[in-house]
Design a protein that fits this description.
By secondary structure, this protein is α+β, with helices and mostly antiparallel strands. The chain has two domains: 237 residues, ATPase, nucleotide binding domain (Nucleotidyltransferase, domain 5, 2-Layer Sandwich); 166 residues, Nucleotidyltransferase, domain 5, CATH 3.30.420.40. 36% of the residues lie in helices and 19% in strands.
Length: 503
């Protein structure tokens, strides 16, 4: 048995695979997000307990011994730990918006672009650079108490194995890594005003770190490899490694990835270049802030169950009777294929005659247009694979093929966990049939007439988006979120989704 662990934003999963890559079993636990005034945090102890629980459940259900385990998880955010790997404070999520005002100043004074020109990665409020700088200004005691600022999977790996704090080149790509040297760029650290906090950056293990399990959730001595994080792990699990080929992850975030053998540090500062385990190869990534989370919000607001989506899409024509959605619902704005912390979602064309089906279809179409924008910006020229919770809807997958105007290689199952196993196997020298492990389960072709209709719709979407960005820029930076209140204040809201569609 080969085990892949995927520590997602709202769902922690562990999947078991046999030697041929067939998925044998999955165990999952939901974890909460605490939201307050644009601040989004997670309880690290809850996350780690969920990892241990799903591993214990999985190994109890599948009797074969564990050959090795691979670990992946959500990227970005700040996970401050002490010398023992224990949390210093709640983790600041990649969805966090507290640093948007700081990022706005960096956009205005040139710091943002200067960092992109050195790293190929465009910062956003929930990435470690702005978050660490915000904490240094507003919560320095937390940084003083921390031994390392790691990423989600790094915290889990440290606790599962007892290995020293470390990260890998994929997580380190945002925002401090020089993609050419695969090492931290100290000039970037200085530009962000964090030179005095340089010691908090976890050492980069290249190739990914390995260690034996201590016995929590997995048998003692089980071989584990740490990384890459969920986006490149999904690319590995979907077989996206050749330059020009791409992957669209339709999850909580809408992530477009294209494999490349070249760096473009001179283009528009947007997206990121994710370093991979192959020097000289990167993933040009456009990870939009909101994917299925936008649809989840619309479903919750209108009282529509997930099980009703396919029927509503089938009963509503392309164009949704004139209803349009710009799906930028994240409290921290958008980060790809452009950066605009002040951008917010827009719903137009609604009348008393509009139906729930119109709202659902318009949201799905808006997310599809956002995906096309990201893939175009990332330089897609080859085949396109898709995965993620959104692809569990056959009707939405067909809609995406029409909006994108190209065939979709659908990769089902726990793709990130699969990629984590393949990365672990490569690190440990275990021979697996990668082609068999990454075989698509279906290919969905676009309908020519609908694809032509959506090509026109995409041009209209870009025009509406351009106008919305101009309005956001004129509005200026909104007030910064306040810190999470202390004792006696209203507690932050904790979200526990009924169904995770996270990546």
């Amino acid at each position: 048995m080969y085990v892949g662990i995927d520590v997602g934003t709202s769902l922690v999963k562990a999947a078991a695979f046999d030697a041929a890559g067939r998925q044998r079993a999955v165990a999952a636990r939901r974890v909460g997000l605490a939201l307050h005034g644009g601040i989004v945090e997670q309880d690290m102890e809850e996350v780690y307990a969920a990892v241990v629980a799903v591993l214990a459940e999985l190994t109890a259900r599948v009797p074969e011994p564990v050959e090795l385990a691979g670990l992946t998880g959500q990227g970005d955010g700040v996970w401050l730990v002490d010398a023992e790997g224990r949390p210093v404070r709640p983790a600041a999520s990649w969805m966090d918006g507290r640093a948007h005002a700081l990022l706005g100043r960096w956009l205005a004074d040139g710091t943002f672009e200067a960092v992109f020109r050195r790293t190929g990665s465009a910062m956003f409020p929930g990435c470690p650079g702005p978050l660490l700088a915000w904490l240094d200004r507003h919560e320095p005691a937390s940084l003083d108490a921390a031994a390392a600022a790691v990423y989600c999977k790094d915290m889990v790996f440290r606790r599962l194995t007892g290995a020293p704090a470390a990260t890998d080149v994929s997580d380190a790509s945002m925002p401090f890594l020089d993609p050419r040297t695969r090492a931290y760029d100290d000039r970037v650290v200085e530009l962000l005003g964090l030179a005095h906090r340089r010691g908090l950056l976890a050492p980069v293990s290249d190739p990914i770190a390995t260690a034996g399990a201590r016995g929590e959730g997995l048998p003692p001595g089980t071989r584990i490899a740490n990384g890459p994080y969920d986006l490149p792990a999904c690319a590995l699990g979907a077989g996206v490694t050749e330059p020009g080929d791409g992957l669209l992850i339709v999850g909580t975030c809408l992530a477009a990835l294209v494999a490349t053998a070249g760096l473009d540090l001179d283009g528009e500062p947007a997206g990121l270049h994710i370093s991979t385990d192959r020097p000289g190869h990167w993933l040009r990534a456009m990870p939009a802030m909101v994917g299925t989370a936008a649809l989840d919000w619309v479903l919750g607001t209108t009282g529509v169950a997930h099980e009703e989506v396919d029927g509503l899409l089938a009963g509503t024509p392309p164009g949704a009777h004139g209803v349009r959605v710009l799906p930028y619902f994240a409290p921290s704005g958008e980060r790809a294929p452009f950066v605009e912390p002040r951008l917010r979602a827009e719903l137009t064309g609604v009348s008393l005659e509009s139906t729930r089906g119109d709202l659902v279809r318009a949201t799905c179409e808006g997310i599809g247009y956002a995906a096309r924008h990201c893939l175009d910006a990332a330089g897609l020229t080859g085949s396109l694979a898709v995965c993620g919770g959104g692809t569990r809807s056959p009707a939405w997958t067909r809609l995406l093929a029409d909006v994108l105007g190209r065939p979709l290689r659908v990769v089902e199952g726990e793709v990130g966990a699969r990629g984590a196993v393949l990365a672990a196997a490569e690190r440990y020298g275990v021979a697996l049939d990668v082609a068999a492990w990454t075989e698509p389960t279906a290919v969905v072709e676009p309908d020519p007439d609908r694809a032509a209709y959506y090509t026109e719709g995409y041009a209209e979407h870009l025009a509406r988006l351009g106008a919305a960005r101009e309005r956001a820029a004129r509005a200026g930076s909104p007030a910064a979120p306040r810190p999470v209140p202390g004792a006696g204040a209203t507690p932050p809201k904790v979200l526990r989704p009924e169904r995770s569609t996270g990546c």
